[in-house]
Write a structure and sequence with these properties.
Strand content: 25-35%
CATH class of the largest domain: Mainly Beta
Structural class: alpha+beta
Number of helices: 4
Shape: globular
CATH superfamily of the largest domain: Nucleic acid-binding proteins
Radius of gyration: 27 Å
Number of strands: 12
Largest sheet: 5 strands, mixed
CATH topology of the largest domain: OB fold (Dihydrolipoamide Acetyltransferase, E2P)
CATH architecture of the largest domain: Beta Barrel
Helix content: 10-25%
């Protein structure tokens, strides 16, 4: 799905492609004189060093994607987004701002929903240091062969995990069990309920790792 509470485009520096910021004008206006306010943007990266720059519009579509292991939040940037949507950021923004789209994001974004892609993501120091779990997409593909191989690998990992868990459960020594003498006891491994028995004295097996 597309996250509706986050912006889907930004102004980018033409030199380094990083986000630019509107320059604050600290000049005191002359009383009684009307001055046209021009929006001036500056890039704060080490490369551009707060210089007033030329900027352009770029897409940064906030997505939530899902597979068999769970969900993750990703940002789809301009290059890949425009290739998939077969349009440009400028066209989408112009249409949306002009009132052609009534929703929170352009209608064209609906083409992303329900599709299957393989993603390569960037996990930056900013993500870790700020506990920010929204990752940028560095590459993506809808190549069916690549997706098939990745899904097969993921399934093999799940099978290996399941087999390892079962082996640990089977190999537990009887002295690691505790008789709870309860009519409704639960077998628990690593905090996950794996089975419930009732109407008899049972033993509960608990492992902590």
């Amino acid at each position: 799905m597309i996250s509706e509470d986050l912006p889907w485009y930004y102004f980018a520096c033409k030199a380094c492609n990083k986000k630019v910021f509107q320059k604050v004008n600290n000049d005191t206006p002359t009383v009684g004189v009307l001055v046209d306010e021009e929006e001036v943007y500056e890039c704060k990266t080490a490369t551009c060093k707060d210089t007033v720059i030329q900027y352009t519009q770029r897409l940064k579509i906030p997505l939530t994607v899902q597979d068999s292991s769970g969900t993750v939040s990703l940002t789809l940037f301009d290059r890949d987004a425009c290739r998939i949507l077969k349009t440009t950021a400028a066209n989408l923004i112009e249409k949306h701002v002009a009132g052609g789209d009534k929703g929170l994001y352009p209608d064209e974004f609906e083409a992303l929903l329900g599709k299957k892609f393989a993603f390569k993501i960037d996990i930056s120091e900013f993500n870790i240091e700020n506990n920010f779990w929204f990752f940028g997409v560095s590459k993506l593909t809808d190549d069916e062969d690549i997706i098939f191989e990745l899904e097969k690998k993921a399934n093999n990992i799940e099978v290996e995990k399941s087999a390892s868990l079962n082996n640990r459960f089977t190999d537990m020594d009887s002295e690691d069990t505790v008789n709870l003498n309860d009519d409704n006891s639960t077998d628990v491994i690593m905090g996950v309920t794996v089975g419930t028995k009732s109407n008899e004295d049972v033993k509960s097996k608990v492992c902590c790792y």
